[in-house]
Design brief:
Layout lengths: L6 H8 L3 H15 L4 E3 L4 E3 L1 H26 L6 E7 L4 H15 L3 E7 L2 H10 L4 E6 L6 E16 L10 E2 L8 E4 L4 H10 L3 H5 L1 E4 L2 H9 L4 E5 H5 L8 E7 L4 E9 L5 H13 L2
Parallel strand pairs: 3-4, 3-5, 7-11, 8-9, 8-10
Antiparallel strand pairs: 1-2, 5-12, 6-10, 6-11, 6-12
Length: 283
C-alpha cells in the first residue's frame, strides 16, 4: 500500500481482497497500539511511524528471501527461481534470442521476467521485488554490482532517399533537431541518444512521442522525422517491412553499454556472474 497509495490497488498487488488487507492493517494497529494509516474518503497514506514500519518490513522480507537465496546458491548453478527485470528497449530484442538457450542449458532455472523502465526496475531491485536487472548504462541505480555484457551501438534511422544513398556515418551536428523523434521521459535510451549527440538544444527541441520503439519506427517510416535506434533492435528486425535506412552515428559516445546488475553482497552473486557470462557469450 505504501507504493500504491490506494487500498484497492494494494490489495490487488498482494493477491487478497480489499477488506482482507484493511482488516489486517487494523489488526496490526490494535496489536501495537498505534495508528499506521491515515484514512480519508479521498486518500490513504501512512503515518510517519507507519512509513518507518513499512520500510522495516521491506527489509525483513528481503532478508527472508535471501535465506532462500543462500540455500539455492549452495546447490546447482543457475537453478531455482530468479526474478529479473528487463528494460523495454532491450526485452523484445534480446529475450527471444537468449531464453531458448537458457531453457536448454539450465532447465532447473525458473526465470520470472518483468519488463519495466529503468527507474522502476532499480526501485524494485532495492526493495527486493527483483533479484537482478538487465539494463543499459550509463544509469544511476544505487549501490549495486555491475557485470558489463557488451556495447550496443546507436544508429540514426530515417526514411529512405533522404541522404541519396550515402553510407557514411551521420555526424551529430547534421541531425535536424526539429525532426528528431525520441522516447518519452523515463526511458534511458532517450538520455543515451541525447548524450551521444552532445547537443544541449536537442533536449528542448526533440519530439518525445511515446513508450515504444516500434511506434516511433512507424512514424519515421511515414516520413514524420528521424530517430535513433539501438543496434540490437535493428539486428532483431525492427526495420523489416519498412522503407527506413539506418546508419551509424559519428559521435564520441555513440553507444550504450548493456549490463546485468544486482544488489551488493547478494548470496547469489555466483549465479548472477554466471548468468552475465552466458548472456555475454550469446552476443
Amino acid at each position: 500500500m505504501q507504493d500504491a497509495g490506494h487500498f484497492g490497488r494494494a490489495a490487488e498487488a498482494c493477491f487478497v481482497t480489499q477488506s482482507t488487507l484493511s482488516a489486517g492493517i487494523r489488526e496490526l494497529e490494535t496489536l501495537i497500539g498505534v495508528t499506521l494509516v491515515e484514512r480519508t474518503r479521498r486518500v490513504v497514506r501512512f503515518t510517519p511511524l507507519g512509513e518507518k514500519i513499512a520500510d522495516k518490513a521491506r527489509k525483513v522480507l528481503r532478508e527472508a528471501d535471501e535465506l532462500g537465496d543462500m540455500a539455492r546458491a549452495a546447490g546447482r548453478p543457475l537453478s531455482g527461481e530468479m526474478r529479473m527485470s528487463v528494460i523495454p528497449t532491450i526485452a523484445p530484442f534480446m529475450l527471444p534470442h537468449i531464453l531458448p538457450r537458457l531453457r536448454a542449458d539450465y532447465p532447473d532455472l525458473k526465470l520470472f521476467l518483468r519488463e519495466e523502465p529503468s527507474a522502476a526496475a532499480c526501485e524494485g531491485l532495492q526493495h527486493g521485488r527483483t533479484d537482478c536487472v538487465l539494463l543499459a548504462l550509463p544509469y544511476a541505480c544505487g549501490d549495486v554490482e555491475i557485470a558489463p555484457l557488451f556495447d550496443d551501438k546507436l544508429l540514426v534511422a530515417f526514411p529512405e532517399g533522404e541522404t541519396e544513398g550515402s553510407r557514411e556515418p551521420v555526424v551529430a551536428e547534421d541531425i535536424d533537431e526539429t525532426r528528431l523523434l525520441l522516447l518519452e521521459d523515463g526511458h534511458c535510451l532517450k538520455d543515451h541518444a541525447l548524450a551521444a549527440c552532445n547537443r544541449p538544444e536537442l533536449r528542448g527541441q526533440a519530439s518525445m512521442l511515446g513508450t515504444s520503439l516500434h511506434t516511433i519506427v512507424q512514424m519515421v517510416d511515414n516520413g514524420l522525422g528521424v530517430t535513433m535506434l539501438p543496434q540490437m533492435a535493428v539486428d532483431a528486425g525492427i526495420l523489416k517491412g519498412t522503407h527506413i535506412t539506418a546508419r551509424p552515428l559519428d559521435a564520441e559516445r555513440a553507444s550504450r553499454k548493456i549490463a546485468l546488475i544486482w544488489r551488493k553482497a547478494s548470496p547469489r552473486e555466483r549465479d548472477f556472474r554466471l548468468l552475465a557470462d552466458v548472456l555475454s557469450s550469446m552476443h
